[in-house]
Amino acid sequence: QLQLVESGGGSMQPGGSLRLSCVLSGFTLNDYAIGWFRQAPGKEREEISCIRNRDGSQYLKQSLKDRFTMSADSAKNAVYLQMNNMRPEDTADYFCAAGSSCLLNYKYFEIWGQGTPVSVSS
How crowded is residue 91: how many other Cβ atoms within 10 Å of its Cβ? Predict the structure, then answer.
């Protein structure tokens, strides 16, 4: 069974940091591109970052580059999203997903985790 499981979400005050984890099972980092996405209430899902391990391609949303970092650990078959200096507008459900390319619209990513909620407020 191909599965992604996210963890690490929670509530925090502005300026705080969180590290989200996404563990793959049934497949490896070399099989798919793995992306992080988020969806805020009433808004469309957006891609934050993506890694395709087999060719080293990587994407990170320009507006988040100074605060967010995505990394991958092949030994643990997992990807991570480090989020620093968080803001209320980062409040959303965060998902990881697997697809054939980081260039795809989120609608074409094939395997999705269940999501982990992140809330930033004072």
Answer: 17
Which residues are within 8 A (CB) of 52 and not within 5 positions of it... i.e. 6 or more apart? 32, 33, 34, 58, 101, 102
Band (pLDDT 50/70/90 cuts) for residue 105 is confident
Burial 49-85 (b: 16+ CB within 10 A, else e): bbbbbeeeeebbeeebeeebebebeeeebbbbbebee
**Tokens 């990170």 belong to residue:** 60
On the CB side of 55, how many CA atoms lie within 13 Å of its CA? 9
- Residue 64 CA to residue 59 CA, distance in Å, equals 11
Q: What is the pLDDT of residues 67-83, one digit of tens each?
A: 999 999 999 999 999 99
Place 91 in a pLDDT band, splitting at 50, 70 and 90: very high
Cα 31 to Cα 19: distance, rounded to the nearest angstrom: 24
